[in-house]
Amino acid sequence: MLxxxxxxxxxxEAQVVRGVSLDVGEGEVVxxxxxxxxxxxxxxxxxxxxxxxxxxxxxxxWRGHDLVGLTPHEIAGRKIAIxxxxxxxxxxxxxxxxxxxxxxxxxxxxxxVERVFGIFPRLAERRNHRGGQLSGxxxxxxxxxxxxxxxxxxxxxxxxxxxxxxxxxxxxxSIVLDLKREGLSILLxxxxxxxxxxxxxxxxxxxxxxxxxxxxAKVMAQQTETLMKHLxxx
Amino acid sequence: MGMNAFQLLNxxxxxxxxxxxxxxxxxxxxxxxxxxxxxxxxxxxxGYVGYTVAVKTGSFTLGAIAAMIAVALIGLALNQGxxxxxxxxxxxxxxxxxxxxxxxNDMALVIWGGDSFTVPIPDALKGGLxxxxxxxxxxxxxxxxxxxxxxxxxxxxxxxxxxxxLIRAGVDDAExxxxxxxxxxxxxxxxxxxxxxxxxxxxxxxxxxLSLYPSADSEILVFSLAVVIIGGRGSLLGxxxxxxxxxxLNTVGQVMFPELAYFVIFGPMALxxxxxxxxxxxxxx
Lengths: 234, 285
Hints:
The complex is a heterodimer of chains A (234) and B (285).
Chain A: E1 2-11, E2 14-24, E3 29-33, H1 40-48, E4 54-62, E5 65-66, H2 72-77, E6 80-83, H3 95-100, H4 113-119, H5 121-125, H6 136-148, E7 154-158, H7 166-181, E8 185-190, H8 193-199, E9 202-207, E10 210-216, H9 217-221, H10 224-231
Parallel strand pairs in A: 3-8, 3-9, 6-7, 7-8
Antiparallel strand pairs in A: 1-2, 1-4, 4-5, 9-10
Chain B: H1 5-32, H2 39-57, H3 60-81, H4 90-112, E1 128-131, E2 134-137, H5 138-160, H6 162-179, H7 184-207, H8 216-231, H9 236-256, H10 261-275
Helix pairs in contact in B: 1-5, 1-7, 1-8, 1-9, 2-3, 2-4, 2-7, 2-8, 3-7, 5-6, 6-7, 8-9, 9-10
């Protein structure tokens, strides 16, 4: 349902994404791997309509409609949510405010505060803490919870495992699989190959703004040596 | 010559007026990242409109309402008609608001002339009260009360409503609010209109005890800038503390070192900027 075709995007003269084509199907988890500076975050920002970068060519089609040129809130309104790199919580808001600012507490359809607290009981315990007072894992849960409150069909996750302890990375993997079971599609940007292979249906590898390798995650899992070459040592 | 309770109250009531004006200034600065140099002109324009309506109708309340509505509308036109075309370009935004300040001041000069006006005080607030052995004008105590009420209202708005949560989130990270499906421009607009209305209210309040005259706008603007720089942009607590400091320092300066009155405010401000460039309660972005 997300079809990216020959997308070019960059910052002024610097083209960072140079002709990427990529698909995410209904209920599919797709991992996008690549080293730092290969264009992963630029691609995610371009899908979400965040500027800079500026899209200079190609298309991002979502359920048949082109998203290029729409504002981020219009894209979010089409049920695409983002869990950005570095979480980007709001230091001035409490945990519960992160969730209720997007949807009145009285709305009972789709994702509600209770449902988010249901999958992240830790957040319920810390409902009145501010974003800055949470641990790394709790911050990531809250970033996911905030994304869920727009009732997304697709979540763009930019390096969610970054900076997390191994046990939290495992927890995160199980959350991604839970969300997949709920029917959500997920485009997961990762540097961590094993974490990506653990949850993804398909994998794309990005190098200097182009897709250099793609395939089924199960097949890719047999070729970790080739993948390592692209990703550097992990 | 030392300070006495009378002068302390003068400082407090001036601080209350500064709070009304500067709270709108800091909300706009914090969220939209616009240093609105027309804020002083909005204050003065609001004062003139309030004066005219209060004189014509004989009602202070109607004057205050008219001042807020008129200035809110000017703010709406300024934001929708001009500022949104230069969004993201700080220098252009600041210069644009400076130009608007000149235009508003000249229009005020054409309409009201260069004389000094004082907004008529309602009968109930005329005269003074005697307490703790001092006699103090009722109206200035009323300004203090309005300042406290505005503080409470803004606190409830910012910390007890969804719009308030969105404004605070926007001060932290406007892009992320937008990426969460909120049309941040509407939040910007609401904030700009609210901040402008507060400038108008300030003009009405101040017009009755500081009086209204050409250049009153730049005086209040300079004080508001000091308040926001000391308190840190976008912070309600910051603007409250900043107003108190500036209001009291101003009185201390005028009473004890009249020749250095401005230095007493801007000296500490410069010192603060050197060690805490974001102000007392400001946050890095």
